[in-house]
Amino acid sequence: MESQPEQTQEYDQRLVTLLEALWGDGYLSPGGDTETAMVLDGLDLVGARVLDIGCGTGGCAFFIEQRYQPSSVVGVDVESGVVHAANTAAAERGVDDRVRFVTVEPGPLPFADGSFDLVFSKDSIVHIADKHSLAADIARVLSPGGVFACSDWMKGDDLPKSAELERYEELEGLGFGLASPDVYFAALRAAGFKQIAYTDRTAWLAAKTRSELADLEGPLRPRLEAEVGRDFLEHELEVWRALCVVTESGQLGAGHFRAVKP
Q1: How far apart are CA 87 and CA 101, in angstroms?
Q2: Which of 155, 248, 205 has the alpha carbon at shortest distance from 38?
Q3: At a CB cut-off of 8 Å and minimum separation 6, what does 108 contact?
Q4: What share of the chain is helix, strand, coil (3-state, %, to 5)?
Q5: Could you tell me whether strands 142-155 and 252-260 are parallel, antiparallel, or unpaired per DSSP bridges?
Q6: Contact of 151 with 120, CB cutoff 8 Å
Q7: CA–CA separation, 169 vs 177, rounded Å?
Q8: What beta strand segments (E) does 31-173 contain?
Q9: Is 59 helix (H, G, I), strand (E, B) or coil?
Q10: How far is Cα 32 from Cα 37, in angstroms, rounded to an integer?
Q11: What span, in angstroms and rounded, lies between the C-alpha atoms of 103 and 101?
């Protein structure tokens, strides 16, 4: 089994500034409200207890609270800086009685069995190498009949990584535990989930990445050079160029999963 690359970059203020410039306030992954709504399409979440794994600066959680009227949303992340920013935003929005964010350590979720009716995640499980242990823990914290719904970035196949994919991971520096969709299916089945469904979003991700590169090289460049510095921006441009290579070749893909706990 391939080892998980070491994380060498943090979601510090420079990176958050750049990502939110591309993807919108509160979002540290692409697609914003539209992609979040696609992941949750057709679900009735009125009064539901929601867990958001890898909450970042809170964009998904705030959208879910506003659009779907759950009773509560708890976001968790291993990055204390983004959790602090999310809690500050919740207080500013006046929703901190219903939406809260918690810094957690890697490993089992710090919640009792059956604590949630929906476990949601947007492009965060890619950072967790052990998909089987995570799927089992998600099943544990879900109530019977509860739903797991996520989007994620995935490896295109189960073959050894190419030089292009390894270069992208090294440039990105965020510590990926990439796996193919088949690994996700196997992990969800082993955890006892039923009604497992998958929607491929690889073509969308490739087109979105190419568009983002054009924005970074063009209209966003002056603002970002001033806010994050030219050297940091130039590094991120290299990241995006490498990302275009692996998304357009299908070596790195994306998709939506949904599964139900019996």
Answers
A1: 6
A2: 205
A3: 137
A4: 45, 20, 35
A5: antiparallel
A6: no
A7: 10
A8: 49-53, 72-77, 99-103, 116-122, 142-155
A9: helix
A10: 9
A11: 7
- pTM over 0.90? The answer is yes
- Give the dihedral sign, CA 30/74/189/147: negative
Q: Is residue 2 predicted with pLDDT exceeding 50? A: no
Contacts with 128 (C-beta within 8 Å, 6 or more apart), sequence order: 106, 134, 177
Instruction: Give the pLDDT of residue 5.
Output: 54
Pairing label, strands 72-77, 49-53:
parallel
Q: Rounded distance, CA 58 to CA 151, Å?
A: 16
**Secondary structure element (H or E) that encloses residue 198, with its range:** strand 194-200
Residue 75: what residue type?
G
Is 90 exceeded by the pLDDT of residue 194? Answer: yes
What does the buried/exposed string (b/e) look like for 135-146 if buried means 16 or more CB atoms within 10 Å of the residue's CB?
bbbbbbbbeeeb
pLDDT at 20: 95
Residue 145 three-state SS:
strand
**Distance between CA atoms of residues 33 and 61, nearest Å:** 10
Find tokens 């357009």 and name the residue. 248
Among residues 54, 74, 60, which one has the least CA distance to residue 11?
54
What does the block give as tokens for 73? 């949303």
